[in-house]
Amino acid sequence: MSLTAVSLPANPAADDAPEQGAPVAVAGRDFPTNRGGLCQKGWTSAEVLRAPGRLTQPLLRGADGALHPATWDDALDRVATGLRELRAAHGPEAVAVFGGGGLTNEKAYALGKFARVVLRTPSIDYNGRFCMASAAAGANRAFGIDRGLPFPLADLGRAQAVLLLGSNPAETMPPSSAHLAGARAAGGLVVVDPRRSATATLTDGSGLHLQPVPGTDLVVLLALQHVVWAEGLADTAYLAARTTGADDARRSVAAWWPERAEQVCGVPAEDLRAAARLLAAAAPAAGGTGAVILTGRGAEQSTQGTATVTAAINLALLLGLPGRPASGYGAVTGQGNGQGGREHGQKADQLPGYRRIDDPAARAHVAAVWGVDPADLPGPGLPAVELLRRCGTPAGPKALLVHGSNLLVSAPNALRVRDRLAALDLLVVCDLVLSETAQLADVVLPVTQWAEEEGTMTSLEGRVLRRRRALAPPPGVRTELEVLHDLAARLGVTTGFPTDAAEVFDELARASAGGVADYGGLSHARLDADDAGLFWPCPATPAGEPAHPGTPRLFVESFPTADGRARMVAVDHHGPADDLRPDAPVYLITGRVLQHYQSGAQTRRVAALAAAQPEAFAELHPLLADRIGVADGELVRLTSARGVAVAVAHVTESARPDAVFMPFHWPGEGSANRLTTDATDPISGMPEFKVCAIDVSAVQASAGTAPTVPVAVAAGGAIR
Ligand SMILES: Nc1nc2c(c(=O)[nH]1)N[C@H]1C(S)=C(S)[C@@H](COP(=O)(O)OP(=O)(O)OC[C@H]3O[C@@H](n4cnc5c(=O)[nH]c(N)nc54)[C@H](O)[C@@H]3O)O[C@H]1N2
Ligand SMILES: Nc1nc2c(c(=O)[nH]1)N[C@H]1C(S)=C(S)[C@@H](COP(=O)(O)OP(=O)(O)OC[C@H]3O[C@@H](n4cnc5c(=O)[nH]c(N)nc54)[C@H](O)[C@@H]3O)O[C@H]1N2
Ligand SMILES: [Mo]
């Protein structure tokens, strides 16, 4: 299975799609990435798939301001008419598209093609911008390729040391944390997290938990490199043979000796030294079994996310790791199709096959597959945060189509996002449920989810997997391939948008051929024959020759850059955009809990999960709780320059005294993203979700005005 909880493998026993209403068992399949295990959310995912509140009819906003059930024809006509009018009045850029990393490869591909060929708009981006953008930017720059892991996940289990920066797999991908057991047993697990997360507790008794000041991972990484150089632990033969830029990178860490780094990141100098030595000893060049450096969202969702990833890569190169056994740098992918979702063209600057939309050769290739003139393909669009910021402004998009994202809850500075989306002339949301974003829409189209349709997804290791339909969709819903086909036809494009996923995949394979993410040798039929999937790049081979076996391990011989070498780039620390100050003296850090998925649109509707984590909460250290006079279980008010949130205090020593942790799974008053900043990384466009400055105080409940804690919006509540 791919490493996300909600995206579970279809029950392999369920060859015949059970009928609607029949029980669906979700079973762990014996598969190398998850060792047959499933996380808690996984065990209840059959419930998630059948969560109440499923939309089965399109909804149209009426003159009375409410959403009313409508026929598919009326709903699609309204969308097509609206798009045509807005395009005629304001030009093609006035229509924008927002995709999602939960979409299958086929849907992500079709959506990107729809934007460029039917709408002819450059304005398309997706929620992966919030997720993998910094890891992608760093890896593309250094290695010439962005595949979450350059080796099969099972290799991780053989590594003697693993450095995890800002990743909490014990809660966010429990099946994969089994692969940390090897490093843990060897005393080589190092977890960098300002919070004593569930994953950080795995270092108890052995290994190291480094608990930095939020937003200072880059300083930790610069210091680790400093120690490697200073103690003669660098793999200089590897640097000479396989990299460029090592001298620059070396100069950039000269000023970050451990005692100075400690002043900024708060991690004791001795711990920094110990971590660097432990990693160096695990490197194959030093006789170890392997060392892996992994980043998660904690290190990446920062205005210096690309720089932080670059520093992690520089450290890996310094130790000679990439391309060596059970070694290297990787980024832990997030959503169901977080990897495939970023390869096929729903990114603002991208064409299928991970091609650049500003590359003339890439445009010519893809235009030929699409049967259009390359000159008619739009150029690059704006990254997600900027796209949303411009929605409904005089020069910005007037219409937005949303496919697979609940922006009102998950986007940074969510109150501003709400204002921007409310200012649109036409908001169209395709979803399974009436998410908070769908509640604001003019048109809501009910669609199928992955388990109800045919398709493929790609795991963080670049393993392309077939997903077969495991259950019948509720009557009344359509697949997004059907929606795009129908809309294209209404907008005058009657070919090129098939509704059969195998056919879409074949075209995707041709469009990707010769690109970085080459799927040219793959098809549904070939993947059907191989339950374990195949790793891209997997190019087509000439007729009569054996099929390409796929590429489980990258970088063994060289890197896919112009000169075959990895590029080391000097980076430096500047700190968070919204830093502490007298009226905002505490950091807010955000993230996830085991029981909920993302914006919670699906998991908040599942009774068992809602009961286990019913309400928005904020973790506070006892010292901070004492200072503001709040006890465990009482309400706190969190205030940033953007907004105010209210949450239940969880008083715990796992927090730093200067940092409150709040999950972002809840809407309304309990929404962490009412507080977060929409400042972004200048290279990747990634917003700084993980760190901003807030004030926190006790909510004094006065009689009669007891504050309410937000709960899930009742399904269907806004329909009249
Ligand atoms: N249960 C569950 N699982 C999920 C998801 C979910 O919503 N729920 N979502 C999926 C998706 S899309 C993703 S992207 C992944 C995300 O997976 P992770 O990256 O593991 O998840 P997060 O909880 O966002 O962040 C990880 C850790 O970063 C820490 N952190 C916060 N600020 C900083 C900092 O400045 N530096 C460092 N080093 N750490 C910091 C937090 O304390 C947190 O423990 O999970 C996937 N799996
Ligand atoms: N503060 C803070 N905010 C964050 C993060 C953080 O760590 N901290 N993490 C960020 C990250 S990494 C991510 S990935 C985002 C995720 O946040 P979102 O982009 O909001 O992702 P989901 O909550 O998964 O929303 C998916 C929506 O699509 C619907 N859906 C599911 N499957 C399909 C489908 O096949 N088609 C369509 N059309 N709809 C479907 C679901 O019902 C749901 O309403 O949140 C980001 N926001
Ligand atoms: Mo994500």
TrEMBL record:
Residues 587-693 form the Molybdopterin dinucleotide-binding domain. Residues 1-21 are annotated as: Disordered. The keyword Iron applies. One of its GO terms (molecular function) is molybdopterin cofactor binding. InterPro entries: Asp_de-COase-like_dom_sf, MoPterin_dinucl-bd_dom, Mopterin_OxRdtase, Prok_molybdopt-oxidoreductase. GO terms for biological process: respiratory electron transport chain. Residues 54-489 form the Molybdopterin oxidoreductase domain. Keywords: Iron, Iron-sulfur, Metal-binding. One of its GO terms (cellular component) is membrane. Pfam families: Molybdopterin, Molydop_binding. The keyword Cytoplasm does not apply. This is Molybdopterin oxidoreductase family protein. It comes from Pengzhenrongella sicca. The lineage of its organism: Bacteria, Bacillati, Actinomycetota, Actinomycetes, Micrococcales.
